[in-house]
Amino acid sequence: MAVTIPPLERSDFLTGQPLVDGTEICGDSTYAITNPATGEALANVAKLGAAQTYRAIESNSRAFIDWRKRHAQERARLLHDWLALVRLHRQDLGLLMTAEQGKPLAEALGEVDYAASFIQWFAEEARRVYGEVIPGSADRRIIVIRQPVGVAGAITPWNFPAAMITRKVAPALAAGCTVTLKPSELTPLTAFALAKLALEAGIPPGVFNVVCGDAPAIGSVLTSHPDVTKFTFTGSTAVGKLLTAQCATTLKRVSMELGGNAPLLVFDDADLDQAVEGTIASKFRNTGQTCVCANRILVQGGIHDRFVEALAARVSAFTVGNGLEGATDQGPLITRAAFDKVQGHVADAIAQGGGIVTGGKRHGAGELFFQPTVLTGANPAMRLADEETFGPVAPVFRFDTEAEALALANATRSGLAAYAFTRDIDRAWRVAEGLETGMVGMNNGIVSTETAPFGGIKESGLGREGSRHGIDEFLEMKTINLGVRS
């Protein structure tokens, strides 16, 4: 079957392979990368394992000796050169991402821009790794410097195949670390393309390696190898806990961006149009397949019916389809298992008294497409109240008081993001401070930006990515206590 993806200027992006020490490498076998919208094979990719991961880390260790000594201005220049190539090949990267991940092309192109923003931000932060001088005594001077932590292992998910990579790799490289990255087995082509562009930008071989294939074998090496001193992961809470435990054997520095169960609160005094648009931006981005999307929509009784009617009207008008065949608002779910989970959540909600306002079934666009759905009568006993749906389903819960809304919102072990809509400034502060999450979107459905720290509390993770704090995850402090003769 011919691959129905528009011709790429960089045809090698479709034939890319894992990259170790500046060279594309082969494994003992290959596996197919498929388009979730059509099921067609896009490319055959080498399936790597423990041996190749050891080789990648060894090359990281060799490259680190030189890379850490490079002046910050030189690392910044190389990151800017990488940025320029990413922007130059924006269209190809967007098409590639839509083909292997399924998101609408407009969203894919937006993600390329978002990914580029992290490279730009941390290229600038490379020159701002400051130390400090602490007042000592007459015969001592105390100086604190910050140095790269060393070799970093990184694992990224399929839902943002470009941005989740640059949000980790760019600060690591800016700090002077080297990285071995394992992207999702479902979406490695975007990762290979980004690594290839980094190499073409002049980032030395061995500084940024990419391996994929046998996930347990690769993950085991990244979390146990003594040369890996920093480990960063974005993915499910269950897997994050397992990897954190594995990292404990060598006491690695760990940062985890894990699952969410984001509440979105709409109060009676909210601007209705703003609340609906914010809900759509949060809930239906990437077909609902984001860790920060609104999983539970809590609406106060006085505005509930009007909000549901307005939201359903917007959702029912979405264009659903293959992002490579024209303008779309929603794409496919990533796998059969993902589709089955969404379908199961809807069936469970109906069985427990929920009502479908719009959607609720498989979409005619293809096997992995689900109709954008709004359902009412949601309650805490439903599966979707406790589990991330990770799909285009907006369940609406009704509440009466602010205290009830906060109690419902916080009744979860997750604590990544939350959203609230109100025109009462006092309530806005009370709710923002009362929500048990690492990020709050107040009258805003988008919390992600390279300029602000991204991360959660409770079982949603450790550490922060993005912002000036993001580079700190890849730096160690060293205290120099200097004796001085008077």
Automatic annotation (TrEMBL):
Species assigned in the record: Novosphingobium subterraneum
Enzyme nomenclature, EC number: 1.2.1.16
Positions annotated as active site in the UniProt record: 257
Keywords linked to the UniProt accession: Oxidoreductase
CDD domains: ALDH_F5_SSADH_GabD
UniProt GO BP: gamma-aminobutyric acid catabolic process
Family annotation (Pfam families): Aldedh
Origin: domain of life: Bacteria
Family assignment from sequence similarity: Belongs to the aldehyde dehydrogenase family.
Protein name: Succinate-semialdehyde dehydrogenase
Recorded GO MF terms: succinate-semialdehyde dehydrogenase (NAD+) activity
